[in-house]
Amino acid sequence: MENNTQHIIAYLENRLSPEEREAFETLLDNSAGLRREMAEIRFVRDISAELMEHRRIDTAKNWDELSRRVAADRYRRKLWAVLRNTAAALVIPLIMATIVLYGKVNERGRVADAGQVELTSASGLVTKITLPDESEVWLNSGSRLSYPQRFTGNIRSVHLSGEAYFKVKADKTNIFEVRTKDGLRVCAYGTEFNVCAYDDEPVIEATLVSGNVEVSAPVNGASGSVNVREGQQVLFDRESGSLVTVGANLAVKTSWKDGKMIFRRANMTEIARRFARHFNVDIRLEGEELYGYEYSASFTAETLDEILHLLEKSAPIKCKIIYPEQSEDYAFTKKTVIISMKQKEGGSR
């Protein structure tokens, strides 16, 4: 199957047959370039879909109006030049018309009911999002973020399942909050922080990079809250309901948004979990000895095979990769990595 734009669009629109979809996902698992291309196309497609909702826009009229504004303003002249040279011809008029429409709404003081937007970052990908208030969000692999098309009132609220890094636009009159389904709430006015709240993990982590945040959660049937300082993280245990503040290594906790993986005395359970999410593979640990082993390393552009080779060179472990296979129903199995201790001389483990 040819890996081109048409196949990516067909995949995103669920127009591929089951066997074509499985084959494409296998290629996606093994190609960082293809994953980046799909993320870019998904971004343009999502924006285009949202813009098409504005059915009554007079594109030509609004285009002319914006052109006059751009000509009179130095900053907008630069924006016009960038958009004219880089955006697709069919998308540009819609974008320009939408900018004019929002401008008119703001001038007249009208606020429409805000619909919800839900974005999911595909497995193995990091997706960057700009929220309606210009706050920036990096969404980790397999994570989901829900937010309104426009923030109204004095609370900018988003809902997270998974992991995300937030760079919040400063606004002292309108608080920004991140909520999880467990009732955890991270509140700030303008700061940077990371929240890790995957559904299959027992602990939710909220790590403060800069500024100030307040974290609250249902603790033992009541509502507990803590103020967090820079370089600290709050751990919320889903089972016990405890809320604890500890020190954090910011590079370890936030480097994922830049495509890096940094480990500092991490146990093999954590390493396997992060590798599985980053590379979209299944990882199995075999042997109790593995759980006591700790590892420190930094990875940037290395492939999974390269990382596993480095692990074998620096630790008494061996890694076996089971590559995807096609079954009778044309579906492909997921790539699996089995990590175990190396066999010692004499046959003992």
Quick overview of this protein structure:
Helices cover 32% and strands 31% of the residues.
Outline the secondary-structure elements.
Layout: H1 5-12, H2 18-29, H3 32-51, H4 59-72, H5 74-86, H6 91-108, E1 116-120, E2 127-130, E3 136-139, E4 144-148, E5 155-167, E6 175-179, E7 185-188, E8 192-197, E9 203-210, E10 213-219, E11 222-228, E12 232-237, E13 243-247, H7 250-254, E14 261-267, H8 268-279, E15 282-286, E16 294-299, H9 304-314, E17 317-322, E18 336-341
Parallel strand pairs: 5-6, 15-18
Antiparallel strand pairs: 1-4, 2-3, 3-5, 4-5, 5-8, 6-7, 7-10, 8-9, 9-12, 10-11, 12-13, 14-16, 17-18
Structural account:
By secondary structure, this protein is α+β, with helices and mostly antiparallel strands. Helices cover 32% and strands 31% of the residues. The longest helix is centred in the N-terminal third of the chain and has 20 residues, at 32-51. It is globular. The relative contact order is 0.08.
Query: Please, how many helices?
Result: 9
Tell me the major beta sheet: 13 strands, mixed
Instruction: Look at the helices and sheets and give the structural class.
Output: alpha+beta
Spatial shape = globular
Low-confidence residue ranges: 85-114
Please tally the β strands and state the result. 18
Strand content: 25-35%
Amount of helix: 25-40%
Rg for CA atoms: 24 Å
| CA-CA gap between termini | 45 Å
Strand/helix succession: HHHHHHEEEEEEEEEEEEEHEHEEHEE
Overall pLDDT score: 79
**Quaternary structure annotation:** single chain
